[in-house]
């Protein structure tokens, strides 16, 4: 699980195998019969509610289509861990792979090598420097999500002030786009000052340290945009430790169980929820279309829902929350 921060060796990653457990970081198996299309899903990271939700929907879509789907992911969102996982999957000879690349550059060659063996590739959530290697790329409108996060902060802190972005690491296509959408929106409103982007490397503890240090330097910060689940978790901890819950408004990206708890507790004021289930369903649909020589959509963007304490228990909010298991 991602909550364990131990870095596995390449050998240990390869030894993960294909254990049957939906969304567990092993693999879930569809129930197709003889001759069924064999698909694989390589998650950005195992144990993340976003990818679990995507996997659950992908498993259902594959099963409905009579295909089989196995799922694996590294223990951290890191190309050095994802590469051996992908290589292990490729060696099992699936017909198509859904993959969330953990770096736009570092994963380019490993994914190209998969396609050179005749495997169809569909990019889900994240992308590559050159996505043309894939049959289709499916992701949220991440720049739009970043702008929506700033709109939420404006509602929460309408008098303006300093705002900070806590992101994952440079080179992740989705979070880079979220940060860009947010910063572009900040620059267009002279009431707000952009303090830039700092990177937590997907470690909640580091995100907490970033926010604590930022508040020591700029105690008048009014808003923090955390671009993913773990950045939001750590940012919330940093604000709480500084005793600034009433002053600093946090908008997080993603709606996993920890973020929803923080929302209910009032530490995080709004969440930008993606549609990982829709991404998973479309990923299966496009992979099967490519395998069956049917029309394939090269690029698909999915939307998002802003979840607040006002709507989290209403149907709109409930339907947007991520799953911790299938």
Automatic annotation (TrEMBL):
Highest taxon above the source species: Bacteria
Gene3D superfamilies in the record: 3.40.50.2300
Keywords: Signal
Signal in keyword set: yes
Signal peptide interval: 1-23
Coiled coil (residue ranges): none
Pfam families to which the protein is assigned, alphabetical: Peripla_BP_4
Location of the Periplasmic binding protein domain: 40-294
Subcellular location field: Cell envelope
Keyword Secreted on entry: no
UniProt xrefs under InterPro entries: Peripla_BP_I, SBP_2_dom
Protein family according to the UniProt entry: Belongs to the bacterial solute-binding protein 2 family.
PANTHER family: D-ALLOSE-BINDING PERIPLASMIC PROTEIN-RELATED
Protein name: ABC transporter substrate-binding protein
Organism of origin: Pseudonocardia eucalypti
Organism taxonomic ancestry: Bacteria, Bacillati, Actinomycetota, Actinomycetes, Pseudonocardiales
